[in-house]
């Protein structure tokens, strides 16, 4: 209870010096008076009486020294014993500082000096008890022993020395730095109140210097600084308290003055005469020297230049050398002697920092300090290269234009205005499409132009020409012709390379395949494309159909489940203008063990069921029989008609040579064309040139005709060959058409060749 009560009391009560405190408590003792039927109550009072309990900080003794005395006035003459406890007695801080030497009286002693800054007061608990029984006879009394302050601490600065800087043009009304000293004596007393003063400043100012506010410690200027006369100062600042006696401390402040712009720059000299050759970009044609009295490499010393007059066309610029502060004049756009032989430039400069001044100890408003110099430039004449007019021009020609077409004329003139001869040369023609007339500059095509050439970029083909004069030394000018190739519809759509061979899992069902097309032409000769199946070929219309047309692609769907194998799907692809050509999509139906990716061909073939192989085998057998039959027919040694050549003499008449006058227009001597009636002729049928059913059929793709020197070198469509064979078999070929696939064609090709 005593400890808790001590904490609460310490937070609420502060005992004052030289005042005697008296605490009174009253307890009611009830006694019974048995006279009659009435009861009488009698009250007795007990009192604590103490003297002033106050100590002085750092009291030198002697010790133990009496602090004060406790007294408790009890109603009877019982002998009492006094006890104390709490901080300073048997608790921290400073255990054993206080004690009662004789428990018969309440005198409290202190045993050593006390530091108020460490412990400003002590709250101790006082108790009184009967001497014989030790029973507490009164409630505990909380006594506050207060330690009075003495001025034993001088003000303290956080550092002994301070280094600060200030601009030369600092305003006198603005603080430069604030000093702050701390006194550890009791707050809000004269012992802890600090006053500041400027003890000295070195060098001593002539007129104006520094001052310090005695209460706030703020250091200010009393006038203007002059970097040239005093670039730095040393200030001795003193802090003193108001105790009795007063204590003080000092600190040193080193002030570095930073140079400001007090000197205007000047050119030395302020006029120049130079010569510059025409037609050249030149760096550093002139260096303009500058004088400035401020500190080098500061913003007060550095200057910035500009050409204020005489360079309206932007031929010159001027930069600052960061090391020497000189102005470097450059020619950034070639000069022309013929049009402008002389220039007069006005170059202005000023410091990066505005100029300031001080009058009567007060700063004046900053102002610009601008200096100027005149530069006279004489342009010297030189042989100028010929100039093309225009330097670049565009010529349009239709894609596919042939040789001999006049495209345009390069036109170059000599700016020197002399009767010089100009010679044109072709500098850039990567596809070797044109010729250039050396005298006139005319450009004529020598080959057919092609927009699909790798040298054409976005339909533009670049041609560069040089014009060389006969000056000394000769000079060369450059001109550019951009040949725009307007597109023509000379390309039919083709299958995208990724759509020529497609794979589909046999378990895919009706999942569509996506066929993509492309066209080398531009709009409006390209997409959207049209797609149409060639239903005249085999059983295409019963097996495949086209789905959604997406402009540049179309969906391909199977109408029925197909066995594993390779299939050909012929279709026509047309562009926006209707130009189309036939393309073939090769579709492989395969086994997909994982349900998504076709197995290797060998693996897939090993897993084919016999039911799927049976039609293929039947087709191969039928074709083999047909070939044997054909070979048998070809063993006839004589033609049935007289005068007609034998089969052996004319190469079995499988190919009809057209090397006579009046033959097909695209044939040459030794060129062979396959006749659709070839099969019948091999069998000995009377089919000649006058037979309208035996007209040469050209099996070739788009392009030029090429001669075939032998049967083995003849390139023709396996599909068409098979169709001829099937036609020759007549009704017997129907079963073969149902099971016909590309696999059978490949087998037939191997059998024939």
Describe the protein's architecture and organization.
It comes from Camelus bactrianus (Bactrian camel). This is Cadherin-like protein 26. The structure is a single chain. It contains 8 helices and 46 strands. It has a 5-stranded antiparallel beta sheet, with no helix packed on it. β41 (544-549) and β42 form a beta hairpin. It starts with a helix and ends with a helix.
In terms of DSSP E residues, the strand content is 35-45%
- Residue stretches low in confidence (pLDDT < 50, at least 5 long) are 1-46, 602-612, 636-753
Structural class: mainly beta
Strands ordered across the widest β-sheet: 1-2-4-7-6
**For the report, how would you describe the main beta sheet?**
5 strands, antiparallel
User: Tally the helices: what do you get?
Assistant: 8
The count of strands amounts to: 46
End-to-end span in angstroms? 123 Å
State the helicity in percent bands.
10-25%
Write down the overall mean pLDDT: 76
Structural Rg: 60 Å
Q: How would you describe the shape?
A: flat
Protein name: Cadherin-like protein 26
Spell out the blueprint of helices and strands.
Blueprint: H1 2-12, E1 22-27, E2 44-50, E3 54-56, E4 65-73, E5 80-85, E6 98-100, E7 106-110, E8 121-130, E9 141-148, E10 161-167, E11 177-178, E12 194-202, E13 210-212, E14 218-221, E15 232-241, E16 248-258, E17 266-267, E18 271-277, E19 282-288, E20 290-291, E21 303-309, E22 316-320, E23 327-331, E24 342-351, E25 358-359, E26 362-363, E27 371-380, E28 387-388, E29 392-398, E30 406-409, E31 412-413, E32 423-428, E33 434-436, E34 442-445, E35 460-468, E36 476-486, E37 494-495, E38 501-505, E39 513-518, E40 530-533, H2 540-543, E41 544-549, E42 553-558, E43 565-574, E44 580-590, H3 601-606, H4 610-633, E45 655-657, E46 672-674, H5 678-682, H6 718-729, H7 734-739, H8 742-752
Helix pairs in contact: 4-8
